[in-house]
Design brief:
Chain lengths: ~260, ~250
């Protein structure tokens, strides 16, 4: 049924023409443009792609783990917790992520070498590299945006549900784990999917602090070979594919979460 | 006057000196960068609104080909990082313009950073604005449009008198978000070497080694811009919502 509807949507005359034009453009790009540099940079590109993906995955995971308490503090916490959480979200959402990244890398990064005990510690080999700062900046940014999303999601769970759970004799933690959090997450999922794509679009900024992600590899190709368009177009295609995969994954996740829901 | 504060906080006096508006301080550079950022953000937002209006009307009333092309535009722009779009459009735009000028027998020109920044960010904003405005126009009740048509209004008149005022309060939260994105996206132009606030900050911080002072000052400037404009948008929204039933 689903495949048939898809076929009905595609086999419309004007769409067939557009698809033919698109394929023609792709073939033309493959034949006429310069792609001879691909084999030489293949390994580097794969490493870069992997770095982009794990930076995205880890920053979203850690950021979400921070966002849940941030959202909860704003939605239901006492003022002493809610005010700093709100301030954090406002500052993160009000300043460009590039500025946050550079503040963390150049600012905090230049602070560390002054302390001998940090330089002698076990962590120093990591702190000398750029990726921990990139991961920290991306995580904090995701936490700031998602803290706001989770605040709305926690607030939108009907109070009756929580009262019913309380009257069943559930403890606070059980209510949160069984009723409040799952329903908030279900409401937040569509937004979270969009935000994850936005986070993907923020990852190439880490190239400015010398992390070699897929974007940095394409810049390297441009500088080495003076070929401008081909690496950039391929890069755009790669990001399109990743964004498409993310959108699909979130759609499947939403379907799973919506099972058994009315409406 | 501030001596007691400086005594309490030893680093503050150097920071204030570094941020002063006169030449030994870098405050003037930061403010010039902030003005450039605001200029680009305003231009890009306006261009985005124009593109978005036509995009939304095309998506709602256009033919099948227009609609499909517009969805390709919005999907691609919303999935590909702005940084890459900026690079592609910047290189391709300069290239195409110069080829066109050469074909006409003129000499190639250097595109100014402001114009390129506005054009590129405007195209990005246009994709988001298309979706915001389309959603808002769609949620105007059909009955109102039918009533307007029954009174004998033409389609332009319906758009001006009914659709536009009815959809504006619905579109304003999305547009306010877009404006905030525009102000923050100007920072990306630092990477292509345009001296807006973030690049000025990095240069100041790099040559004085006072990273925290300058990055925190720039953060405060950005935050002021976003907070003030959020207030402004709330005020406009409240004005346009007057007389409407609260949901």
């Amino acid at each position: 049924m689903n495949a048939r509807r898809l076929a009905e949507e595609i086999f419309v005359p004007h769409r067939l023409v557009m698809i033919a034009v698109a394929i023609g453009l792709l073939v033309w790009a493959g034949m006429a443009m310069r792609w001879h540099w691909i084999p030489r940079y293949y390994d580097l590109a794969l490493q870069g792609l992997w770095r982009t993906i794990w930076l995205l995955g880890l920053s979203c995971l850690f950021g979400f783990m921070l966002a849940v308490p941030l959202g909860l503090a704003q939605a239901a916490g006492p003022r002493i917790l809610a005010a700093p959480a709100r301030a954090f979200c406002t500052v993160i959402r009000g300043t460009p992520i590039l500025l946050q990244l550079w503040l963390i890398y150049y600012g905090i990064g230049s602070l560390f070498p002054q302390f001998p005990w940090i330089r002698e510690s076990e962590l120093w080999p990591y702190l000398r590299q750029a990726w921990p700062y990139a991961l920290l900046a991306l995580t904090l940014s995701f936490a700031g945006y998602e803290g706001e999303v989770m605040r709305g999601a926690f607030k939108s769970v009907p109070g009756g549900q929580l009262e019913a759970a309380r009257s069943m004799g559930m403890g606070r933690f059980a209510i949160f784990r069984r009723i409040w959090f799952p329903q908030a997450l279900q409401r937040a999922l569509p937004t979270l999917g969009g935000e994850t794509v936005l986070q993907l679009k923020a990852t190439p900024l880490v190239a400015t602090i010398t992390v070699i992600d897929i974007y940095a590899v394409s810049s390297r190709v441009r500088q080495d070979t003076f070929i401008i368009y081909e690496p950039l177009l391929l890069l755009a295609l790669i990001y399109l594919v990743i964004a498409g995969a993310l959108a699909l994954a979130f759609k499947l996740l939403e379907q799973r979460f919506n099972r058994g829901m009315v409406g | 006057m501030l001596d007691w504060l400086y005594a309490l906080w030893p680093g503050l006096e150097t920071s204030v000196g570094l941020l002063s508006l006169q030449p030994p301080g870098w405050g003037g550079n930061l403010l010039r960068g902030a003005v450039a950022s605001l200029q680009i953000a305003l231009g890009a937002f306006a261009l985005g609104l124009v593109i978005g209006t036509f995009g939304a009307l095309g998506k709602l009333h256009g033919g099948p080909v227009t609609r499909d092309l517009l969805s390709v535009y919005t999907v691609v722009v919303r999935a590909v990082p702005e940084l890459i779009l900026i690079l592609i459009l910047y290189y391709a735009g300069t290239d195409l313009l110069n080829q066109a000028l050469q074909a006409m027998g003129r000499r190639p020109v250097e595109i100014s950073g402001v114009v390129a920044g506005i054009a590129v960010l405007g195209i990005v904003q246009g994709a988001y604005a298309t979706e915001v405005l389309r959603g808002a126009i769609q949620s105007v009740p059909r009955g109102q449009l039918e009533a307007a048509r029954a009174y004998g209004m033409g389609s332009v008149q319906v758009l001006r008198r009914v659709t536009f005022p009815a959809m504006l309060p619905l579109a304003l939260p999305g547009l306010s978000n877009l404006w905030l994105i525009a102000t923050k996206d100007t920072a990306l132009l630092a990477i292509v070497g345009f001296s807006e606030l973030t690049l000025e900050t990095r240069q100041a911080a790099g040559s004085t080694r006072a990273y925290f002072t300058f990055f925190l000052a720039a953060g405060a400037i950005y935050l002021t811009m976003t907070l003030v404009s959020a207030r402004l948008f709330n005020w406009i929204e409240a004005r346009y919502r007057r007389g409407q039933v609260r949901q």
